[in-house]
Amino acid sequence: MISERTQVGIVGAGPAGLLLSRLLALAGIDSVVVENRSRAYCEARQRAGLLEDRTVRLLRAAGLADRLDREGLEHGGIYLQFAGERHHLDFRDLVGRTVTVYAQTEIVKDLISERTRAGAALHFDISATEVEGIGTDHPVLRYADADGQRHQVRCDVVAGCDGFHGICRPAMPAGLMTVAERAYPYAWLGILADVPPSTDELIYCRHADGFALHSMRSLEISRLYLQVPLDEDITAWPDDRIWAELWRRFEVPAWELKEGPILEKSVTPMRSFVAAPMRSGRLFLAGDAAHIVPPTGAKGLNLALADVAVLADALVALIRDGDGGPAGAYSAACLSRVWRATHFSWWMTSNLHVPPGQDPMDEQLQLAQLRYVVASRAAATTLAENYCGWPG
Ligand code: FAD
Ligand code: DHB
What we know:
The chain is built from 11 helices and 21 strands. With 392 residues, it is α/β, with parallel strands linked by helices.
């Protein structure tokens, strides 16, 4: 067993763990990041793609936005389509704000390359992660490295940034946490396609046969999603069927969907999950380890990065200044934003998807809500404010 010492042991090299390590390093706090997947896997895992303006500012302040500022696509609104008509919501006009298309894969690459350049501890391909002693002042993080060698890291704090299936949430004391959870009765089939986007801004579309979303990763690569039944078998969706269904759902007069080679496809279930509190003793949870939202509205990545901004300040106060106040306020501060985003994601999801067996009353309630959003400046402003991120 190799014994080591650090100030913050970070489990997980997703966006949350990596950004936390960077923010701590900027404040002179030492950390060790352990990740059970390979670097290549972390850098290629297709997930989110849309950043709130606040997230962009956070990455800039952390000195991580050179490529984001060069390659990110700033969007001043979205299209909302329903009943065969496409409407534009102009966020610049409504709330004076924008969002930015920049893929999670690219953020992860930028963060890994910065940490590697700095020569700081970041261990991929580890296994058997364990956390112990969170009720003491020196919790211990244990893992086996890529060669199977066991390590024991004595920490001041452990940060559980290990996603929904990680080991840190289960390491919280039994009976401490309450969990609020909702599974939605549909899934998303997502594709990445080697074709320029057929739209300048994202299209969120409610069609009688289900939701569709046209997003993008760059001016060359499109990202599109279709609502499909829960547990849908991906083999039921050959490329031709996917393009035909996307065409059908997005169709409006004088608009064309450009088709191209499909680089990747996957089916993702949709769920809301919030575990509270996000801290016990010297173990702090951040990002998907504590909460997940359905993807409609693109909040997951933004919430994860917002958590670690709060956490980094709290840990600097605790470790450097001996001030436990911000650490004590951490969970409540994050959960307030998390619940706002959970409500918004639920609202977007519920109004844009067609659940199995939807009755005419629910259908008309959805349509009434969508018509209101595009007709009322007050309603459109509410959507824009939440989409761009609240609080901003
Ligand atoms: P993660 O990115 O999950 O990172 C956690 C890391 O911890 C992973 O690298 C994992 O390998 C590692 N880990 C897990 N267990 C251990 C362990 N025991 N030891 C060491 N390391 C461990 N959000 C959107 O906004 N839009 C989207 O379109 C979107 N699509 C998504 C699609 C999928 C399939 C998933 C799963 C999520 C999607 N999300 C989306 C959500 C968004 O990607 C997440 O909110 C974001 O990745 C959260 O970052 P994180 O760092 O908290 O967690
Ligand atoms: C993307 C995903 C979303 O859920 C969303 O609301 C917007 C964009 C995306 O993957 O690009």
